Amino acid sequence: MKLSELQPRQSGVEVIVDVIDKGEVREFTKFGRVGRVCTATVKDDSAQVNMTLWNEDIDKVKIGDSIKLTNGFVNEWQGEMQLTTGRAGKIEVLESQKGLSMEKPKKKPTTKKKSEKELGEQEVDAELPEKPEEIEDEDLNIDEEFIG
To answer: Do residues 48 and 42 make contact, with C-beta atoms less than 8 angstroms apart?
Structure first.
């Protein structure tokens, strides 16, 4: 199923999407229990929608991950469709961007660029051969006793 095919109040949704953003985690209390909720933005090749992440799914899902939502539900919030796991849904991380930070940087790094005047003119005098020469084994001077 594609995101563009979703309808409000649709259940049993199964989609594979990429997580492109995650909002702030908010805490709430309902029936005396504390929970956490976060809105993520997900996309596929047909559309982009918001997805509600609850409790442990917040920590499991990272920006840049490819995830599969199984048995999900489509809510409508302030006139926009929003995916959620609902009561019976499940999120599975298919491909994680481990080692790559796709989080938005807190502060952009700054670098001082040198002007052309500061760099000066630099000449490179190099000639490349038109065709690489073939190298014979004898030309390598390999000591036979080190080759086992």
So the answer is: yes
CB atoms within 10 A of CB 145: 6
Compute the distance between CA of residue 26 and CA of residue 6 in angstroms, rounded to an integer: 26
Distance (Å, whole) CA 85 – CA 13: 9
Specify the residue for token string 């036979």: 144
Domains of the chain: 3-94 (2.40.50.140)
In 33-148, beta strands by DSSP E: 33-43, 48-54, 66-77, 80-84, 90-95
- pLDDT tens, position by position, 12-38: 999 999 999 999 999 999 999 999 999
Q: What is the pTM of this model?
A: 0.63
